[in-house]
């Protein structure tokens, strides 16, 4: 089985687990309705990121996202893209700066 097929199996497993969790949440997280733990299938349990590092070697991290990459190689957010998102980000940064300024002036 190639990496692409293994990734699809992994994504399907997580989708089933997510659906089971949502079903449990719909019942108010009742202990008797708790979904059973289903471990990853053996064919995907040892998947690694495998992105090429700056040293030229494959990444060996096992904590990968559904896209098959770790948080260092494609799992994290790239930031705001739209003008509205960038403005919202800038406003949050300004609020943070103001709080920092107040904290240093009082303390």
From TrEMBL:
Biased composition (Basic and acidic residues): 83-101
InterPro entries named among the record's database cross-references: Putative_zinc-bd (IPR047675)
Domain of life: Bacteria
Spans annotated as Disordered: 72-107
Protein name: Uncharacterized protein
Organism: Cedecea lapagei
